[in-house]
Amino acid sequence: MNLSAPRSDHPSCQTSQLMAVIIVLAALVFVWSVVAGRVERLDVTGPIVFVVAGLLLCNGPTGFLAISIETAGVHSIAEVTLVLLLFADAARVDPGDLRRRAGMPIRLLAIGLPLTIAAGFGLAAAIFTDLPWQLAALLGAVLAPTDAALSAAVVSDARVPVDLRRSLNVESGLNDGIATPVVTTCIAAAAAVIGTGLLPDTASHPGSAALIDIVGAAAIGAAVGFIGGLLLRRAGTAGWITPGGRPVAVLMLAIAAFAISRQLDVNYFVAAFVAGLALRGAIGHDDAEATELPELLGRILSLVVWFLFGAALLVDGLERVDWRIAVYAVLSLTIVRMGPVALAMVGSGSDRRSTLFVGWFGPRGLATVVFGLLIVEELPLADPGIQTVVATMVLTVLLSVLAHGATGRPLAAWMGRHHPEADAGPGAEPPRPRSPFGQPPP
What we know:
Elements: H1 11-39, H2 46-58, H3 72-91, H4 95-100, H5 103-127, H6 133-142, H7 152-155, H8 162-194, H9 209-238, H10 245-263, H11 268-283, H12 288-318, H13 323-333, H14 335-344, H15 352-360, H16 366-378, H17 384-418
């Protein structure tokens, strides 16, 4: 796989290229923020726009920007983005509400997610017969997490029953955090079988060290989130916090969980996820203002990651696509997702239409892209098996961006016609105002 390379190694040239990328991204985010409401009525989402922009501006005859997938900054941006989104999503989970309406989310996370990983593993082993089982398992794990941002039109549409919207949000908010240790363990196992050896200074560890890694990360996240949440609550009660101080303080907690866990060489994704859960438990209520800054920053950075995906991964990944990769990508978005969801929903009382709806809206997005960048960072791209994994991931994500982005509003309308009481059902609170950077959980 031929990856993009910087056009010059001269420091002044690299600085000029970096500034050009920053200027273009600033302009793109600005334009998107002022026209998103109009454009999204055409079923064109932010990820679609930024993937296409990255593709056109960094490749082919129209490409005037040089971005290398091997640049450390690309990986750092992707990692920080996932850390912030994991933290913000976890901090918005209401334990009480989850307990009251836990049936479907628990089924999707405890039954559907493991079955999806297993089904993806089995399909990869069956289609890619020359792929080591460690890489087949890695492919299944990387493509299992879903992304609510790609179905924002669905989770913000009151025509869809509120239980379905809430379940999709909880699932997508938590499954990337749950899948992270599986993915990083598979990366470590793949490194061992390929012969790369140990993976220093990364999110992955091999063998029994993976368990210690996860436990240590969870402990750090719990301590940072809970202690920080208690201090934040008491300072608020005492009137010590200035206006706007809470979002800044919460953002620093997310950064602290990331930095401490990275410094101690444990899984910083798990640490951020647990820190968000612990913060929510310590505060004791949904403090939308407190989580606004890390959530907003994560959503903005996610658009940058989509731009980088189109700029540095898309062309090289698609060049490797063959019939096996195409078949796997289509089945991953359909049977591999919808079959486990159907099994998870057995006995839940959900009708067939709702089961199909939830099964279809399992878009692969940001978490998969970040996991793919971790693979690029930690494993040798010269290996044919790694090239197959990355190319399959790229095609699956691309198809998901297009398919789920285009079908969100039409299928929401379809559900509304069959559930006319959805927008007035019990607990169907109106969604929060939409942001051009993605819809937060309702």
